[in-house]
Specification:
The chain is mainly α and 343 residues long. The chain has a domain at 36-200: Serine Threonine Protein Phosphatase 5, Tetratricopeptide repeat, CATH 1.25.40. It contains 20 helices and two strands. Strands 1-2 form a two-stranded parallel sheet.
């Protein structure tokens, strides 16, 4: 975490450029990140804007039945929920109605757990824009009102499709996310998580999301809550991932800007073992970058140096969480330079 607390300009452009040239570092392509599903990601992300949302049901159902995964082990059926709703979310409230209309129209035309889940998910993005990114005490009454209205509208949609959704993973994942905003408290969150998780214990995306929700700023009591869950997830998925679920759970915290590693109960040795297990099973560009990113967050500089020296030259934007792909490359280069100096 020390590196990420440093000034992001700690290493100047000339020094970074030299390292990039010497090591042949570059950004990953979508094909390298998503493998054979790169084209599907691009296509699914355009369904709403092109008026083809009716195609999503078949795409989702096929992904669910196949349990196919992208190269880093995350399930396609879970990823496409994000691909169809989040890639083209507008930055301004004034543009949100145009974004929402295709999801609303599809739901009204063909109400179902799938169309209801997508519309509710889109409304969650509206809620986020209404509220803004400020801390609660800095959020105005009008912002809170907009947030509550959007969340309430989404909850109505979920309630309308609840009866038909008993075995619908997509509905349960979205309903789980909304359980954070209802009055069920921690027990309600855990129950909603279990209803989704029971449908596929090996869903790394869901495991990572729940880890985030167990932060004290959300539903957790202390850092032990999240660690206990990470260990439970690793135990339940050991046959598939070894200790990988523990590593992936903490990867998600590493990607959360407000979380310092020293404020968690992470066991760096177990995180390391988890990533070794993931590299053996899903040794792709994204996993390689996730490994380096998380170990840098944990101040394991010798490990970070070893990962880069061991051949990490293709940098994945999603792993390093820069505001742009170019900033992600800069962050990765700086992490390597810092590790090289401090290992």
């Amino acid at each position: 975490m020390r590196f990420f607390k440093r000034n992001r300009d700690a290493y100047n452009d000339k020094a970074r450029a030299k390292v990039i040239a010497q090591r042949g570092m570059r950004l990953a392509t979508d094909q390298e990140t998503f493998g054979e599903y790169a084209e599907l990601r691009d296509y699914v992300s355009t369904l709403a804007a092109t008026g083809k949302l009716e195609e999503f049901d078949a795409i989702y159902n096929q992904a669910w039945e196949s349990k196919a995964r992208i190269p880093d082990g995350r399930p396609v059926y879970s990823m496409i929920i994000s691909w169809v709703t989040s890639i083209h979310v507008p930055a301004e409230l004034e543009q949100m109605q145009d974004y929402l209309n295709p999801f609303a129209d599809r739901y009204r035309t063909a109400p179902s757990p799938i169309t209801g889940a997508l519309y509710a998910q889109a409304l969650q993005f509206l809620a986020g824009l209404e509220r803004g990114a400020a801390w609660a005490h800095q959020t105005s009454p009008s912002q809170w009102a907009g947030f509550v209205t959007a969340i309430s509208s989404a909850q109505v949609v979920l309630d309308e499709t609840r009866e038909a959704a008993q075995e619908s993973y997509i509905w349960h994942e979205v309903a789980y996310e909304f359980s954070l905003f209802t009055d069920g408290g921690r027990a309600g969150l855990d129950e909603a998580m279990e209803r989704a998780w029971r449908l596929d214990r090996n869903n790394l995306s869901l495991i990572a999301l729940h880890m985030q929700y167990l932060l004290p700023r959300w539903a957790g009591e202390n850092e032990q809550d999240a660690d206990q869950f990470a260990r439970q997830a690793a135990s339940l998925t050991a046959e598939e991932f070894g200790a990988g679920a523990y590593a992936v759970a903490y990867l998600n915290l590493a990607n959360y800007p407000q979380v310092d590693a020293e404020d968690t109960a992470a066991d760096p040795t177990l995180v390391y073992r988890g990533f070794i297990d993931m590299m053996e099973r899903f040794g792709c560009v994204r996993t390689h970058n996730d490994f380096a990113r998380t170990m840098s967050w944990l101040d394991q500089e010798q490990v970070v140096k070893d990962i880069f020296d061991g051949g990490l030259t293709i940098i994945d934007h999603g792993s390093w969480q820069g505001d742009s792909p170019e900033e992600s490359l800069e962050l990765a280069v700086r992490a390597y330079m810092y590790a090289n100096e401090n290992a």
